[in-house]
Amino acid sequence: MLKIKRFLEYRKCFSCGQEFLSYDVEKINNKDYICQICKIGHGYSTKNHNYKGKQSKTSFSFEFETSSRSNSLFELTKYNFIGCFDGSISGLEWKSPIYYSRKSFHTICRKIDKFSKFVGNSCGTHLHVSTLYKDKMNKYKRELFQPILNEMKNDKRKTIKFWGRYFGRYCLGEICEYNRYNSFNTFSSVETLEFRLLKFINAEQYIRACDFCIDTTRYINSFIGNEDFNEENAKEIGENIAKKYREVIKDV
Asked: How far apart are CA 252 and CA 246, in angstroms?
């Protein structure tokens, strides 16, 4: 197409790289524009298959829920996030790539810290950590997670400060059967342990809490796959998780 720049201005969509007339794109920051096609949200069940880092045994990803439709949030697509519709929030749920490197994960958390102002009261920032033993975790969920839930209930202030919020409708303080809203969710649609209580208040708070969650999942994974794993083993692991949690929140 012939560009007559004296009469028409063209802008490049930073997401797809195509050029459009300026009235067909929207500005998302001081230098970037996005086209109407790339701005369309995806369906709730859409999965993000992008990944970051060299593949390893443990992977993790998160859902950055927002209560705003601000154009500036489309900058997240620069980092391979996918914006999806979610009826429980007024903005989009931004699904992160799958991370294999904690360094890459920490870096992106600090880059998106400026968007924490869009994480509203009804929003969470759930973390998914990979496991091959989701069904087994589900079987022993009470032994594994009731001790740490007791600790979290014993100090509401520290729970809110560490996790970003307190228990609610979509992140239960009780362990229920066949319920995907358990705070430690073993009933998700993917092969992960989902930490639903997490909420992004700021990068450092979220990184600290997520590191604990990743370490916790790795710890469970290292034992629960044993053929002779039983209820007593699960109870011991649950008590050790609660003990580690007490240590982690001492200076919160």
From this structure: 10
Contact assessment for residue 167 and residue 127, using Cβ atoms and an 8 Å cutoff:
no
Cα 213 to Cα 199: distance, rounded to the nearest angstrom: 13
DSSP 5-60: TTT--EEEBTTT--EEEGGGEEE-SSS-EEETTTTSPBPTT-----EESS--S--E
Please answer whether residues 125 and 222 qualify as being in contact, where contact means their C-beta atoms are separated by less than 8 angstroms. Answer: no
> What is the model's pTM?
0.93
Backbone φ and ψ for 154, nearest 5 degrees, come out as: -70, -20
If one counts every other C-beta atom within 10 angstroms of the C-beta of residue 139, the result is 16
Q: Is residue 73 within 8 Å of residue 119, measured between CB atoms?
A: no
Kindly provide the b/e burial profile for residues 93-128, where b requires at least 16 CB atoms within 10 angstroms of the residue's own CB.
bbbbbbbbbeebbbebbeebbebbebbeeebbbbbb
pLDDT in tens, 58-87: 999 999 999 999 999 999 999 999 999 998
